[in-house]
Write a structure and sequence with these properties.
It comes from Cedrela odorata. Its EC number is 1.2.1.41, 2.7.2.11. This is Delta1-pyrroline-5-carboxylate synthase. By secondary structure, the chain is of the alpha/beta class. It contains five helices and four strands. It starts with 5 loop residues before the first helix and ends with a helix. It is globular. α1 packs parallel to α3.
Length: 131
């Protein structure tokens, strides 16, 4: 029950309320394999802890936030493994929340069963989670 920033507080609240979905908004489109400013970094559409945990390189925290993407990922993993799907997406687009609720393919999905979809192509895993 301890939180260290807004993302961890949102995760705890989602758990307490038994939410169906948690959407964490960021200043980037989702979780990238490296700093978003690096042209070699790729957007991760479905986070698989066993695959991505050791492969991701986090950049600096934003100048307005406390925990950066590291805090978002930690909160998302905690909520997802407790049974609440999580999407990290950009808060700059005015309709991203609606797009998530419509099942559009944006942001990064965290889901407790994502590891079992690893052999399924990325779009198929996402479609399974949306369904």
């Amino acid at each position: 029950g301890i939180f260290w920033d807004n993302d961890s507080l949102a995760g705890l609240l989602a758990l307490e309320l038994k939410a169906d979905l948690l959407i964490l908004l960021s200043d980037v489109d989702g979780l990238y394999s490296g700093p978003p400013s690096d042209p070699k970094s790729k957007l991760i559409h479905t986070y698989v802890k066993q695959k991505h945990q050791g492969e991701i390189t986090f950049g600096d925290k934003s100048r307005v936030g406390r925990g950066g993407m590291t805090a978002k990922v930690n909160a998302a993993v905690c909520a997802a493994y407790a049974g609440i799907p999580v999407i990290i997406t950009s808060g700059y687009a005015t309709d991203n929340i609606i797009k998530v609720l419509q099942g559009k393919h944006i942001g990064t999905l965290f889901h407790k069963d994502a590891h079992s979809w690893y052999s399924v192509r990325q779009a198929g895993a996402r479609e399974m989670a949306v369904a």
